[in-house]
Amino acid sequence: MVIVKSSYTIPVYGPHHAPEFHDDDQVAVEVINKGGQPVTVLNFGVRVGRAKKSGNLFVTSPHILSARLPAAVDPGGEPARVMVPVDSLRHASREHDVPFRDMRAWVDLGDGRRVYSDNSIPLK
Hints:
The protein has a single domain, classed as Sandwich (Immunoglobulin-like), CATH 2.60.40. It has 124 residues and is mostly beta strands. The strands form 3 sheets. Strands 5, 6, 7, 9 and 10 form a 5-stranded antiparallel sheet that branches. The protein has a 3-stranded antiparallel sheet with strand order 1-4-8. It has 1 helix and 10 strands, in the order ββββββββαββ. The two termini are 29 Å apart. It has one helix at residues 86-96, and strands at 2-9, 12-13, 21-22, 26-33, 39-48, 55-58, 71-73, 80-85, 103-109, 114-116.
C-alpha cells in the first residue's frame, strides 16, 4: 500500500551553523510505502479539478530539496518527498477557476499506478 500526502511547508536550509535560508512556500508531496515491496516514484503533479478530464500541473524545475526521480521507496523506509511551488498552485487555481479543495497531488509509480494524495492541496 502506497500513501500520498500533501502538506504546506516553507523550506529552511543552509550550511550547518550558518544563517538559515528561507525559500518560497511549497506544498510537499510525501510518498509513504506501507506495502511489502519497494516502489519507484517516476513522476508527480497536481490534478486541477475534480473530473477525470481535469488538467494537470507538472513541476518542470524540481526544488533543490525534492527527491530526485526516479526515487525508490522501501517498505517502512524513508518516504520520498517532492515539492510543488505555492505560486504555481495559486496561478493554476486562478487560471482554471478551481478551488484548492478540488486540487489533488499525485505520483506515478514504476508499476504503472497513479496514486492520488489522501488530502486536497492544503491552501486557502
